[in-house]
Specification:
By secondary structure, the protein is of the alpha/beta class. It has helices spanning about 55-60, 80-85, 90-95, 130-135, 160-170, 185-189, and strands at about 75-80, 90, 105-110, 120-125, 125, 140-145. About 20% of the residues lie in helices and about 10% in strands.
Length: about 190
């Protein structure tokens, strides 16, 4: 066998369709476009999903559910996984080092699942009520500082100047401007 004798297996390769090159090509005359109509013309384009002005299927069907982009940011840790760990002081770095949570995780939360009988200290890792109770019952403790929620700035409303407020209300007994416009002078009295 030589490199210059190599060729693909028979039938594995076929010639590309030469569309619009006459009858002999097998795609002659209308070239696979059918007879007339928008799609037979050059430049006859419509967007994907367009149904001639009818409400398209993708808009008739309801939207349901979504996949949150932040789903992997907070990892869940079981209490049974804490039991199997070597470290006694556990924080996010220790969980990543022992490959209990993903290296992409931005935070972790311990949930009650399984047994925990050894004394551990949980640092800056959230814990559910049940998990916290189990850790404290085993002689451990949870050290977590809640981050303060961001304070929203209140917009100050502009107060009206006293002069503008008096001008806005028409004086008692005096007709407002343009009240009698277009009427004869006799009827206004």
């Amino acid at each position: 066998m030589k490199l210059n004798t190599l060729k693909p297996a028979p039938g594995s390769k076929s010639d590309r369709h030469r569309v619009g090159r006459g009858i002999a090509s097998g795609w002659g005359k209308t070239a696979g476009r059918g007879h007339k109509g928008q799609r037979a013309r050059s430049g006859g384009f419509h967007k994907v999903g367009f149904e001639g002005g009818q409400m398209p299927l993708h808009r008739r069907l309801p939207k349901r559910g979504f996949t949150p982009l932040t789903r992997d940011d907070i990892a869940q840790v079981r209490t049974s996984e804490l039991q199997a760990m070597q470290a006694s002081d556990i924080d996010l770095a220790a969980l990543k080092a022992e490959k209990i949570v993903s290296h992409k995780a931005l935070a972790a939360k311990v949930i009650l699942s399984g047994e925990l009988s050894r004394k551990i200290t949980l640092k800056e890792v959230k814990a559910s009520k049940g998990a916290r109770a189990m850790i404290e019952a085993a002689g451990g403790k949870v050290e977590y500082t809640e981050k303060a929620a961001p304070v929203k700035k209140e917009k100050k409303k502009k107060e009206k100047k006293p002069e503008q407020a008096e001008e806005a209300l028409p004086a008692a007994g005096k007709p407002a401007k343009n009240q009698g416009a277009g009427k004869p002078a006799e009827n206004q009295a």
